[in-house]
Amino acid sequence: MPEAADVVIVGGGPVGSALALALRDTDLRVVLLEARAAAAGDARPLALSYGSRLILERLGVWPALAATATPIRHIHVSQRGGFGRVGLDAAEAGFPELGYVVDYGRLAHALAQAAAATPVQCLTGARVIAWHGGAPARVEYEMAGDWREVAAPLVAIADGGAASAAPDAETVDYRQCAVTARVVSERPHNNTAYERFTRHGPLALLPDGAGWALVWTTTPERALLLCAMDPETFLTDLRAEFGSRVGDFTAVSGRASYPLRLRRAPRALPDHIVLIGNAAQTLHPVAGQGFNLGLRDAWELAEQVAGGASAALGTREWLNAYLARRNLDRRGGIGMTHALVQLFSNDLMPLRLARGTGLALLGCVPPLKNFLVRRMTFGARG
Hints:
The chain has 11 helices and 20 strands. The chain is α/β, with parallel strands linked by helices. The protein has a domain of 220 residues: FAD/NAD(P)-binding domain (3-Layer(bba) Sandwich). The longest helix has 29 residues.
């Protein structure tokens, strides 16, 4: 006989742990399954919106992150080799900050630790083998060499690897890679983030401590070269692509590369199964929407779990209500990032002129800029 729970969360990364935390005050039995311990040493930069900070405050984990989070108060958007630019400003939009840059590992560790201190049963070292829809849904997993099974009226898949079992997922290969690194420049960042669109893709510089977190989108072939070349040549190429706004770049560390794809899970899934975070959608890093969208997935799922009748939990009607609630935000986030990639990864002159005109007009219309900021901060329903 499988063990019984009310909610099973597959994946103890930041989104899965956030869902567990958001359910801590319910009377439900919640089980979280995670194969590995939280990677506290994973220093990958992660861009949080101000809206995500508000959710993390409600979950009680923001104080553990605030001291090392670097605020973003200004965003400068431009295109290489063309006119038109726009500046977004926190004070102009009515926010204390537009966002923050944090270490992925620090965020994941803070959320996992907080979840482990709640009544939620957090099982680390639990490798999920398979999951099955039904009434109830079932999850098979292996732990300490033993095969186990847990059944629940709601199984939330928050692990992108576990979601690969979902059929008919939509995938778009952008034929791009993101090169990430930490860099140092001559001039201070003054809490300004830069998004610069080049002919190969967007290049983002995010304020991170005393230096910068770099996300440089390019072709797979060039990504290999950028990761292999000596630091001086890398910094020279970065200066040529980015420009001189922050002076010369003086140091680089931690270079890595990963392929970029859009993956969107199918809407039709077995009853009592729901996908959230990277399991539901994996986005291009342009505009930094991926984790913020996933965190809203978890928060709104917890609200629906806590506010509904337990007898309906996970039923087709219940799941359809959740998907309808998330549809506008998800479609908006996916549509915006995909459109930016398609529009700004092409160097044709007519498109360059159209982009420049659009950026110039956006910069001249404060209400339109503030509308964009609110969407980036709170999602499509912001």
